[in-house]
Each structure stands twice: as structure tokens, then as C-alpha cells.
Amino acid sequence: MERPSSSWQGFDSLSPDSEKYKRIQLLFSSANFEYLETCAIESRRKHEPSLSLDASCSIDLKRFTSGFNNVVLEIAFSDGVFWVARIPHQTLNNNDKTSLLSEITTMRMIHQHTTVPIPRVFSFEMSTDQPFGYPYMFMEHRGHSLPNGLARTIPSEHLPKVAKQLANVFAELQNLTFSRIGRLWCGDKADQPVQIIAMDWHASPGPLETSFEYFYNQKQA
């Protein structure tokens, strides 16, 4: 299996003078990555009880990629399996944590109820009050990696395939229906029945009853 970090550039992709560079340096120097490796083994054993007792994993801090909010690290298990760890390099406020928990709930709903190829979320921690010192999320590596950046155009010979894939995704997602419009929420541990909560980015946070309310109120803002 191709490892997640095969095209990641680590610090080489960042300017040493940038705030992001400094935040990631601080994270790497202050977080307890030995503890995170222990958590990764425990999480995998929870999902795979037959995992060998001598299984181990490692996290190489030179192998990472990053976005606006998160740094993503490769977790390499001793049996050749790879996960990824997603860690915020910016401080999360309560709204950020709510949005992240809603994202986790949404990803799990899509994974459980559709065939859309979305990474599985194995486990997560939102609190900084634990030995690692930062929130984190363990996610599935789906067996391929992308170079930094995304394609801005689709070659014409691939357009029919891409259009078919998108149509299949939309067809499956439209079958996930809820009583109101808002964000999905399953509690602070993402283990409760699904609720619909307000959208903090919308002109009328809601939850809203109809699509008319959603688009009308957004247009009036």
C-alpha cells in the first residue's frame, strides 16, 4: 500500500518566517507524541481485537502536510497499515470544537449509510487536558495519496467518468434526509442519537424547517 506521506513535503513547503511554520514547530516541540502513538495502538486494538500484542506504531515528524487549520501526520503500524492523525495547529474555541464534532458526525453518517468513499474516523479527542496536550483525530488512509494542491481542470477524456462519479455521490447523499436544516450533532463524544443544531455561519442559524427559509434568509443577509 502506498504510504500517505509519499508526496508530503513537511517543513519544506512552508516559509520559516510564516506563522503557520512557527505554530507547527511549537506543536511538535511541546506535544507528547509517544503518548499519541500509544493512543493509536489502543484505538486500533479497539477496532481490531485480534491485533498482535506486539504491534507497534511510529509517527515521523518530518513527514507531514498541513492546511489552514490542521497538520496531518502519518501513523505507520508495524504490520504495514497506515492511518493519519489530524491535529489542529490553531487554538480551537467552543465554536470550532462544535464544528469539528459536527464534521465527525457527518463523516460517520456518510460512511455508515452510503458507499461514498470517505475516510473512516477511528477515534478523536477534543480536550487539551490530556497527556498529548492537543486535540487530535485518527482517520483511515484510503490507500492512495494526492500531491500538494488539487487539479484545477479535468482532462476532457475523463469528464464522463467524473460526471458519473459525482452523480452517484449526489444520488446517495440525497437519500440522507433529516427533519430540519442545520448541522448534525451526536454530542461531545459523537456517540449519541443524531440531532440537528444551529449553523453558526448562516444568516438565520436555525435549525430551519424548509429550504425556502434557508435560501430566502441567506439572500436577505
From TrEMBL:
Gene3D superfamilies hit by this protein: Phosphorylase Kinase, domain 1 (3.30.200.20)
Keyword Hydrolase in annotation: yes
Database matches in InterPro entries: AGP_Transferase, Kinase-like_dom_sf
GO molecular-function terms, A-Z: hydrolase activity
Keywords: Hydrolase
The name this protein goes by in its record: GDSL lipase acylhydrolase family
